[in-house]
Amino acid sequence: MTLSRRRVLAALATAGGAGALTGSATSALLRDVDQGSFGLTTGLVDIVVEYWENSAGAIDLSAPDGVVDGPHVTLPIGTLDEVESGRALLRISLPQDEGPNNPASLWLKGDCPDATTLGEFLQVTLSYATADGTPTTEIASGSLRMVANALRAGRRLDGDPTTEDIDCLTDEVFVVIEYDLGAYVGTETVSLPLSLVAIQCRNADPSISPFPADSIDPVCQPAYNCDCCWTIGKVEVEAAFERGRTYTFNEGLAGYAIRVTDTDGDSGVAFKLVATDVDVPPLPLCDVAVKGGPPDVHYSRRENEFGFDTSVLDGAVDGIIYAPENPNSGGRYGISYVLVSVCAPELADGGCPADVASEAASVGGGQKPPRGKPDTGPDAEKKKGEKK
Predict the structure, then answer these.
(1) Which residues contact 385 (CB under 8 A, 6 or more apart)?
(2) Among 128, 130, 188, 353, who pairs with 161 as Cys (CB 3.0-4.6 Å)?
């Protein structure tokens, strides 16, 4: 049986208590950067940002949920409690209280979020939008970290997305921000520091970023938390794995599968964990159990390494992991299933997410091999000798 993501997350929230997916601990905020100066002086103009949270359908443009003035803008991505997704509509305009303002070049910049698993899982899409919040052209999308990378050097926004050219802002432009928790089940918090500035087009080349080089972060690096080894899926086979084939889980979390990259007869396999649903993020492997005959054997990730294929597992030989040895034949059993576990953070109560796939009840005659001490492939002893 394959469980849907929503059913799994609901079960985890129930099993893990209020901290699993509820409460203020699981918040995902996009907020402003520190109020320090970027050295922006000449030509800097005020902008007005109004926002409507979780807007859907018709909205009252005369009654925004909030208004922020100035070059540093707090983008209103609220707390994710019992829901998995949300959105906010922004209207960016020039102040008109004292007459029309000068056309302005509009720029958006992001900094790297804190290194958290949530930053890898939270899916964010920024798009231009119509006045009713309907997305049109995409600006940036991906995990929170990917969006930060896309915006870290500054991205010029189009003052009029309905034309082919990138225009200066003369009136108003709408941007919608959509976000989704994906498969995240932890309780971390994360924010994406953003800065939105406008420069008078007549005082500078509007195509040149106003952000100085020393304000740009290095490339945001991946960050995961492996407090827990969360078992998310099992792939059962009756014949040998086939190289190049993708196998969906027979049991476990929907949206994921393994793509076989190499094999060694019917007893060895190398694979990559892949997402079959565009709305779910990649998950780094923590442990893979390989069953053949009565026992199984566990291959755990090497310390301080994160990856999505079996090459990061301790004991893998050229990325291939093997079924246990068959004492009767002197060879190895054929693989009957692989059980996949991924890295996950602790829940609010200090516990781990409940596994959504399980090993066979008869594995090892009731004796589960210790994790972190996997069996090895046929050439492992030779390779170990070469390293000494």
Answers:
(1) none
(2) 128
Question: For tokens 């409940």, what's the residue?
Answer: 354
Least confident of 61-75, 89-103, 273-287: 61-75
Beta strand ranges found along 292-374 (DSSP E) = 296-300, 321-322, 337-344
Tokens standing for 363?
A: 């594995």
Neighbours of 174 (CB within 10 A): 23
Q: Is 229 helix (H, G, I), strand (E, B) or coil?
A: strand
Q: Work out whether the CA dihedral 264, 266, 268, 272 comes out positive or negative.
A: positive
C-alpha–C-alpha distance, residues 322 and 26, integer Å? 39
* 333 close to 292: Cβ distance less than 8 angstroms: yes
Kindly state the tokens that stand for 58: 């018709």
pLDDT of residue 346: 83
Integer angstrom CA distances of residue 138 from 144, 149, 161, 198, 387: 15, 16, 10, 20, 50
CA 149 centroid distance within chain: 13
The amino acid occupying position 111 is D
Rg of the chain (C-alpha set): 25
The two three-digit tokens of residue 308, written as one number: 């999505």
Bigger pLDDT: 209 or 331?
331
Beta pairing partners, 106:
157, 198
Residue type at 42?
Answer: T
Task: List for the chain the helix, strand, coil content (%; round to 5).
Answer: 10, 35, 55
